[in-house]
Specification:
binds manganese (II) ion, alpha/beta, 360 residues, 12 helices, binds phosphoenolpyruvate
Length: 360
């Protein structure tokens, strides 16, 4: 549930509400929006619910107390109606612009990273990606350059002025990755690694949370809730394909997840057509599809010579292929942005309160 403060409520009244919540052994979580200050109550409320609502509603300065009908609370649109906008260096995610994260699957050498960074920057990428610690299906496959790769990424940020994103796989890597990278990525295999989610929730870096390949939208948003409730509100969601019976593509990109997630949460969502399809020639059409259904951005793997790549050789784009994709993606994004009423938003409004998830 959350408390909405009256517009004229004083600081003392706000503190009064928070202290009642704390005294119950629960945590207050404040969100100051443009029109209202809301305080979500986080924790196991259980049977106290009715009594607590009554008690909070009677406090001075309180306008209303509203239950949140979703299992995710802080991530819900009910609690925070306006979109979360995340700023990292010069890049902005979730403001209606198009975020493009591009770079190699793995950082393989300083030269390979720099050559890719120069190419993707020239083509309009806004964030540089590159794996340092790689989650590989086989223990005998290339596992990434580790800290050496983190150093190259930080150097590339300085050289090209692009924020960098890289995956963190374990709680004990969080500090070192946060020291070098601007955005921490949680990979699909770790979406429900709760100790890792809690650990990235405690650092002052935005987190990109990839959807688990076997996770429902609700499980994905609950994973985001772990990060936010640990203290980090800057979460970007990434749809990267889910496992279905189809084997022609590496995964199946769930395009419907984009508008569904936009209706349920204020968090930005981007799509990763590289891991979703596993095939180079499918990356551009699926990137276009993601943008057409309203994604806030795309993540795409790019390599100067994909055939020589040490990981995901089949799906990485060459730099010219990436530049070509950018032109098309820019056209679709520009078309949607220039409509007087965003056609994607009005589609979800028509569905009006469509209840995609079970209520809890
Ligand atoms: C990646 O983006 O480097 C990656 C390994 O992706 P995923 O976790 O989606 O497989
Ligand atoms: Mn990859």
């Amino acid at each position: 549930m959350f408390v909405v403060m009256a517009p004229a409520a004083s600081e003392a009244e706000l503190l009064g509400v928070k202290s009642v919540i704390l005294a119950e052994g629960l945590s207050p979580y404040e969100h100051a929006g443009p029109d209202r200050i809301a305080i979500a109550i986080v924790g196991e409320i259980g049977k106290r619910k009715a009594a607590l609502i009554e008690r909070l509603a009677a406090l001075s300065g309180v306008a209303s107390v509203t239950p949140i009908n979703r299992p995710f609370k802080l991530a819900s649109r009910e609690f925070q109606p306006e979109d979360t906008v995340i700023r990292v260096l010069d890049a902005v995610v979730g403001d209606g612009g198009l975020t493009v994260m591009a770079g190699p699957c793995s950082v393989e050498s300083r030269d390979q990273l720099f050559e890719t960074a120069a190419g993707v920057k020239a083509a309009g990428a806004t964030i540089l990606r590159g794996g340092a610690f790689k989650p590989r299906t086989s223990p005998y496959s290339f596992q990434g350059l580790g800290v050496e790769a983190l150093r190259y990424l930080a150097e590339a940020r300085e050289a090209f002025g692009l924020p960098v994103i890289t995956e963190v796989m374990e709680p004990n890597q969080v500090d070192i990755v946060a020291e070098y990278a601007d955005i921490l990525q949680i990979g699909t295999r770790n979406m429900q690694n709760y100790s890792l989610l809690t650990a990235v929730g405690r650092v002052a870096r935005p987190v990109m949370l990839k959807r688990g390949y076997g996770a429902t939208v609700e499980e994905w948003l609950m994973a985001a809730e772990y990060i936010i409730s640990s203290g980090n509100p800057n979460v970007i969601l990434c749809e990267r394909g889910i496992r279905t019976f189809e084997t022609y593509t590496r995964n199946t990109m769930d395009l419907s997840a984009v508008p569904v997630v936009h209706s349920l949460t204020h968090l930005p969502v981007i799509v990763d057509p590289s891991h979703a399809t596993g095939k180079r020639w499918l990356v551009k059409p699926l990137a276009l599809g993601g943008v057409a259904v309203g994604a806030d951005g795309v993540m795409v793997e790019v390599h100067p010579r994909p055939d020589e790549a040490l990981s995901d050789a089949e799906q990485q784009l060459t730099i010219p292929q990436f530049a070509d994709m950018m032109v098309s993606v820019g056209v679709v994004h520009g078309y949607l942005r220039d409509q007087p009423h965003n056609p994607v938003d009005s589609a979800s409004a028509t569905a009006g309160g469509d209840d995609a998830l079970s209520r809890h």
